[in-house]
Design a protein that fits this description.
- There is one protein chain.
- This protein is α+β, with helices and mostly antiparallel strands.
- The chain is built from 6 helices and 14 strands.
- β5 and β6 form a beta hairpin.
- It starts with a strand and ends with a helix.
């Protein structure tokens, strides 16, 4: 799929006045076509009639455009009158997105990927571990956090570092561990203990969070409630919490 973008610069043939017209102001209509060896050819006319604001000369900026094969611009013919066009319209090819699945498969940015998951959370199962880390980082970024993804080759303990500054200017450092598990594969207590140890190290953070596409064993939950110094600095975010975050997501 394509669309015309940009501006057409022109020079009046009578008084040499120069100006430009946005392509979005032009009228574009199909004026013909036919069958060729690689399928249909469509002929479009892109036109904008007006008077020169300096000398009232009648001007019509007109271009004949061939779409052949379908969805690709073959050629553009300048048919302008009353003025000289100084450039041709620019063509921008646009992805055809019809569903969250299309966006998931064709995404060009992490915000687009998160948007796809927002509308179809079942696609969480098809992420790879790094994509899941990127999605988690984007969710926190959209909520005002400064985020940093750790390197892919590491010893573990944290996947995302998120910093949040409150209204007093005080920063809180969050260490986030991401576990992309199948729904039936629960995150065990060893993962929680590991993150808790990193959080409490000299260069650790204020809050530790484990985020998963699955859920947690009773041992993992028991550690947070009964063994951690406080359950305010260690949190577990399961699939339900993750989906809630996705529902609230707004790209900024």
């Amino acid at each position: 799929m394509w669309q015309f973008v940009g501006e057409i610069e022109y020079e009046c043939s009578k008084c040499s006045f120069k100006d430009s017209i946005p392509v979005e102001d032009f009228n574009c209509e199909c004026i013909g076509g036919g069958e060729r060896s690689m399928g249909n050819e469509n002929i479009f006319e892109l036109s904008y009639p007006f008077e020169c604001c300096e000398c009232s000369n009648d001007i019509e900026l007109t271009f004949e455009v061939s779409e052949y094969p379908v969805n690709f611009i073959n050629f553009i013919i300048d048919k302008c009158s009353g003025a000289k066009a100084l450039n041709e319209p620019d063509v921008e090819y646009v992805r055809e997105i019809y569903s969250a699945r299309d966006l998931f498969e064709l995404y060009e940015s992490i915000p687009e990927l998160v948007t796809a998951l927002k509308f179809e959370p079942e696609l969480l199962a098809e992420l790879d571990p790094r994509q899941f880390e990127e999605v988690t980082a984007e969710i926190f970024r959209s909520k005002g956090f400064e985020v940093e993804l750790t390197k892919r080759t590491r010893d573990g303990g944290k996947d995302v570092i998120a910093l949040h500054k409150d209204k007093l200017g005080i920063k809180t450092k969050y260490l986030i561990e991401c576990k992309h598990y199948a729904e039936g594969n629960k995150v065990g207590v060893d993962v929680i203990r590991s993150l808790y140890g990193v959080k409490n190290s000299r260069n650790g953070g204020n809050v530790g969070i484990v985020v998963t596409t699955s859920t947690f064993t009773s041992g993992a939950r028991d550690f947070v409630e009964n063994e951690a110094t406080t359950n305010l600095d260690l949190s577990l975010a399961d699939r339900d919490q993750l989906i809630e975050w996705l529902e609230e997501y707004k790209e900024s």
